[in-house]
């Protein structure tokens, strides 16, 4: 294990990084952060010892606080579980949705392996029940070549074919897999049949609400990313010079000198190039801006003197 000498020369930033790494990999559960640095959104304060633990460690069936206050029954019965987690039947513990009826006891009361409990459990949005009505799997797990359901129904073609994907997903051409809509026609195959990158299939698919087609009719992109200096369309049409010059900037943004890219005026003269033509860091413009600001400050000082 680590001795005190191991850590004595580490800066606080490095120490925080090390501690977070240890938490992620579960190497040392006894390390914790003092209340002075506790984040109220993500951390829980133990009752004694001025110790903070991660909120996801509350009511997980394990005492992470020395005094066991993270497993206090009244609190555990009152709290809601995190997304994709469910309460055990005794109401004291939250377990991952994927651990329900998976063959291993995760609840202290063993209710997560009780068939009646599993059947009564409803799947959240973007999850579907396996054919045996016991487990929930994400729609992205349907017919992906890896079994998620213990009964294997998520790899059954008829089951996949009959299951709807949900609003944020689209079916591949074989009508088996579901793919996250923004991942369709993005240059990378997500469908096992590779139909999500098939040109004709992509052209036939409508964009998700709020997105628009690139000029080639294949990809869908957020219109806010048009003329921002970065290529989001594979055909580069989102940065087409003529289109960008004709396009008006969104409210709060201004055109660069070349009339193509729109940038936030707050980023002008900040030392970083945001315009492709570098006009936002133009030396003469920045000097004038600084001079105008200095004149404004001088005017304000004079005004205060006259008022005093």
From TrEMBL:
Question: Might you name a Gene Ontology BP term for this protein?
Answer: receptor-mediated endocytosis
GO terms of molecular function? hormone binding
Q: Which controlled-vocabulary keywords does the entry list? A: Disulfide bond, Glycoprotein, Membrane, Receptor, Repeat, Transmembrane, Transmembrane helix
Is Methyltransferase tagged as a keyword? no
CDD domains noted in UniProt: LDLa (cd00112)
Which SMART domains does this entry report, sorted A to Z?
LDLa
Alphabetical GO CC annotations of the entry are: apical plasma membrane; receptor complex
Q: Where in the cell is it found?
A: Membrane
Topology relative to the membrane, per the entry? Single-pass membrane protein
Extract the SUPFAM superfamilies matched here: LDL receptor-like module
What top-level branch of life does the organism fall under?
Eukaryota
Q: Which InterPro entries match?
A: LDL_receptor-like_sf (IPR036055), LDLR-related (IPR051221), LDLR_class-A_CS (IPR023415), LDrepeatLR_classA_rpt (IPR002172)
- Where primarily located? membrane
Q: Which PANTHER family match?
A: LOW-DENSITY LIPOPROTEIN RECEPTOR-RELATED PROTEIN 2-RELATED (PTHR22722), MEGALIN, ISOFORM A (PTHR22722:SF14)
**What is this protein called in UniProt?**
LRP1
- Species of origin: Mytilus edulis (Blue mussel)
Lineage, top ranks: Eukaryota, Metazoa, Spiralia, Lophotrochozoa, Mollusca
């Amino acid at each position: 294990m680590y001795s005190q000498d191991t850590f004595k020369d580490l800066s606080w930033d490095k120490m925080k990084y090390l501690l977070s790494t240890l938490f992620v990999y579960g190497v040392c559960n006894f390390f914790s952060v003092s209340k002075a640095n506790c984040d109220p959104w993500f951390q829980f304060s133990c009752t004694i010892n001025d110790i903070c633990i991660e909120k996801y460690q509350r009511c997980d069936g394990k005492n992470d606080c020395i005094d066991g206050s993270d497993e206090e029954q009244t609190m555990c019965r009152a709290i809601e579980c995190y997304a994709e987690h469910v309460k055990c039947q005794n109401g004291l513990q939250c377990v991952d949705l994927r651990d329900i009826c998976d063959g291993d006891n995760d609840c202290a009361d063993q209710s997560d392996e009780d068939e009646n409990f599993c059947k009564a459990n409803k799947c959240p949005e973007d999850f579907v029940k396996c054919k045996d009505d016991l487990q929930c799997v994400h729609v992205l797990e349907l017919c992906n070549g890896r079994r998620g359901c213990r009964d294997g129904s998520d790899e059954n073609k008829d089951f996949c074919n009959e299951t709807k994907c949900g609003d944020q997903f689209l079916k591949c051409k074989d009508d088996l897999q579901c793919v996250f809509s923004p991942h369709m026609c993005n240059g990378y195959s997500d469908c096992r049949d590779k139909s999500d990158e098939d040109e004709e299939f992509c052209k036939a698919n409508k964009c998700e609400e709020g997105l628009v087609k690139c000029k080639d009719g294949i990809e869908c992109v957020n219109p806010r990313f048009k003329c921002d200096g970065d290529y989001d369309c594979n055909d580069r049409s989102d940065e087409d010079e003529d289109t960008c010059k004709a396009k008006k900037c969104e409210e709060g943004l201004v055109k660069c000198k070349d009339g193509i890219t729109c940038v936030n005026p707050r980023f002008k003269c900040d030392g970083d190039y945001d315009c492709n033509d570098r006009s936002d860091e133009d030396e003469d413009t920045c000097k004038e801006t600084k001079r105008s600001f200095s004149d404004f400050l001088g005017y304000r000082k004079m005004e205060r003197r006259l008022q005093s």
